[in-house]
Structure formats: structure tokens, C-alpha cells
Amino acid sequence: MNRNNITLLISFILLVFFQTLVFNNLYLFGFINPMVYVLFLVIYRFDYDQTFFILSSFILGFLIDFLSQSGGAHTLSTLTIGFLRPSIIKYTFSVSSEMPVSFQDDNRIFDKYLFLSTIVGLHHFLYFTLVYFNLEATSLIIKNTLLTFIFSLILISLISIFYSKSNDS
Amino acid sequence: MQRIINALIQYRNAIIYLILLIISLLYLNRNSNFHKNKLEKYGLYFSQSIYYLSYSISKYFDLKKINSDLFEENRKLKEFELKSKSVSLYPRNYFKEKRYPFVLKKGNVIKNSFLKQRNFIIVDKGKSNGINPEMGVISEKGIIGIVKSVSENYSSVISILNQDLKINIRLKNSNAIGTLSWKGINPKEFQIEDIVRNTDIQIGDTIITGGMSSYFPFGIPIGKITDFEDNSKVGYYSINAKLFEDPSLIYHVYMIENKDLDEINRLQENTLK
Predict the structure, then answer these.
(1) How do residues B215-265 score in pLDDT, each as one tens digit?
(2) CB-based contact A61 B24, cutoff 8 Å
């Protein structure tokens, strides 16, 4: 077990705990709970096993659902993003001979943030669609997705900067 | 087998994703009543549309049988209808068995003409189905003709669109008796003769069969009076009528068997002697 894996495991556990204990009780402006645990889907290295990634994203979502006693929307959206991530990587990172290896080690700023916001945006959209699960609530879904997306993105970006630095040192 | 395993390994991500998706859907279904209701609603919608599809397919293939069943049912109802109209044939004493000599038989028109002055219809039932000459032929909304000759499996019918055929009729309101015959042009336009001038008639009066011939029972509605003219010199009205049924468009017909026909004929012969 190398250092990367240990970092990943610790961040997995920490993300679950912080999400359920802190961020789920934030209620910014009364209703915004940023979903920071999506960071796990970003920092998992791109060259690692995809099957294990799908399984771990399922477990991540399930744990969040289980600990925050929500229905199953976290599981479904996290699992789906885990499954779709290879295609998202393919379409967000610009074509070059150099394949991206991981989010934190890449230095293409624009591509990185495009990838990050695609993952977070898709995840939030899926999550709120599943939570409301009603065509009549479309405007509510979009509003919630956008507002939560902004805060999640800010927090995840901040934490991911911390990650890059810790990796560099 | 090797290839199946290879395929499984190749698509393992998608397979694992689908399995986990189903597990999480079940989890969602179990945990949230709102989602449970919603999912059940969609499931119901899907199963309903699938059931409806299979139902309509099987129904389509049953249509022929349903049609013939309905035709048989209609025949029975028609018989009852005719029976109920002919009150005069019922004995006053209710303990006696009610006797009604007319029985209906089904048939389908396979050849029909309406362009000539003397038209004939071929029906796909013949001697083997119990059809005999001189049986009346009616349809759902009126009368069609009289059986002229029968072969083993087919019978030819003198159409009502035949200028030789004269039908004994009655006006429903005034009970006046007359004769109906085709004018020879439009398959729905007919004329009525022999209605005496002292009867009170109006446009729109219903014409029914008179029951004077042994072919048709009393009370089958045929058509309506469209206009009439007062021929004061002759002492009869000349009346134009319109049929309820277009005899050129019929497909299902009923043949009326009169069980007393022989008896009536014999009686007539005896009287003439």
C-alpha cells in the first residue's frame, strides 16, 4: 500500500465524516448544503482500476445515505458519476499526447476546472432530480442544483488546492 | 463459454454499474415512501401499457370470433324484438304456450347489385343451413328481400331494389295498409301506393311491415315518409318514402323462416278451389 492509497483511504473516511457531521448541517441561506464528498470522485487517480472505483463510489454514496438517513439519492448519483467518469475525462481534457493521470498532478488549469465542474454539476443535477423526482419541480431542481453547485465547487476547489500542495511537499 | 467470460470481463464495469444501480434503486424504494409511490406509479404505467398492448393484439386476433358471437346475439335479440311486437299472435290465456312461427337465421351477403332495375343478392347460406325459397330477408334496420331459389350452400334473394317486388306495409301511426315498391333510381327512395285518401298521414311517419304477407312478421320498421301528394281523382295518396337501411351497403342479413308457411299456403289453395 503506497502513500497515494493511504491518502485516498483517509480522505474517503474524512470526507464521509465531514459531509455527514458538518456539511449536511450547514443550511447556508436556509437550504444550501454543499456536497463536498464529491471530491473523492475527483481525486481518485485516473489510471487506477475503474471497477474498484465504481464499487467504492457506490460504497461512498451508500455510507452518506446511511449516515444522513436520506433515501438513496446520494448512492444513485454518486454511482452514476463513478460509472460515467472515464467518458467525462475523455471529453473534458483536451486532446493531447499526454493522458491525464490524476486531477491533482495535472497542470492544465482550464481542463481541470472544466472536469471538476462537470462532475460536480452532473452529480448535483442527478441528486436533486432524484430527490424531487417530479417533472413539475423542474425549476426547483435547477435552482437548487445551481446554488448548491456554486458552494460545492468553491469548497471542493479550496480543498483540492490543499491536496495538490500536500502532494507536492 | 470462453467468449461469454471474455465478454463479461470486458463489460464488467457496465455490469457492476447496473447491478449496483438496481441495488440502490431498491434501497431508494425501501427507504422513501415518496419515491416508492412514484416508482410504483411508473411501474404501473409501464406494466399497464404492456398489458394493454398484449390485450389489444390478442383482441385483434379474436375479432372474427367476437364478430360472429355478436351476430348470433343480434339474431336472438332481433327474434325477441319481432316477437315482442306481434302481440296479436299471443294467446290471451297466459297459461297456454305462446306460439310464434317466425325463426331467424343468419347469413352474409356475398354478392349485391343495385344498378339494374331488377337486382338480386347472393347469400352464403343454402339448403344445408335450412334456407328455403320464399323466406323473407331482413337486416338490422329494415327489410332486404325475399329468397327466390336455393342451392346446397347458397341462396339467391330478390332484392328490395327490384321493381317487381311489392311489399305489404302499414303506417305505424294510422294503421293504414299500403304497398311499397322501388322507384328504380336511388337505393333509398321508395314509393308507397294504395293508401286510401281518408287516412291521416304526416311527413316523417314511420313505415312498418304489415304482417299481411306470410314472408315478414308484423312490425319491422322499414323507413319514413318524406313527402306525399293528394291524388283526389284516384282516391289514393302517392307517397314517397325513404328507407332506414341502404340495401346496397348491407353485409349481415337475417333470413326469416315462417314455420306456418305450408299451412297458410294449403289454406289458400283450399279456399281458391
Answers:
(1) 888 888 899 999 888 876 777 888 899 998 888 888 889 999 988 888 888
(2) yes
Mean pLDDT of A1-25: 86
Contacts of residue A79, defined as CB under 8 A and 6 or more positions apart, other chains included, come to: A54, A57, A58, A61, B17, B20, B21, B24
SS3 B147: strand
- The structural domains of chain A, with segments of one domain joined by +, span 3-168
Residues of B in contact with A87 (CB under 8 A): none
Assess if residue B37 is contained within a domain.
no
B157 is a domain residue = yes
**Phi, psi of A137, deg, nearest 5:** -95, 25
| Total domains in the fold of chain B | 1
Which chain B residue shows the shortest CA-CA distance from A52? B13
CB of A48 less than 8 A from some CB of B: no
Do residue A54 and residue B35 have CB atoms under 8 angstroms apart? Answer: no
**CB-hemisphere CA count at 13 Å for B157?**
34
Cell 299451412 belongs to residue: B263
* Cell 351476430 belongs to residue: B71
Of A37, A42, A80, A44, residue with least CA distance to A60:
A37
pLDDT digits (tens, 9 = 90+) for A102-121: 777 777 788 888 889 999 99
Query: Shortest CA distance to B165 belongs to which of B234, B213, B128, B219?
Result: B213
Its domain, for residue B223, covers 102-272
Report ipTM (2 d.p.): 0.80
Of B14, B21, B28, Cβ closest to residue A71: B28
Give which of A40, A29, A27, A25 is closest to A120, Cα–Cα.
A40
Q: Is residue B8 part of a domain?
A: no
Contacts of A133 in chain B (CB under 8 A): 34-35, 38
Chain B residues in contact with A51 by the CB 8 A cut-off are 12-13, 16
Ramachandran angles phi, psi of B124, nearest 5°: -85, 25
Minimal Cβ distance to A83: which of B17, B29, B38? B17
Q: Which of A133, A134, A135, A136 to mutate to test the interface with B (most CBs of B within 10 A)?
A: A133
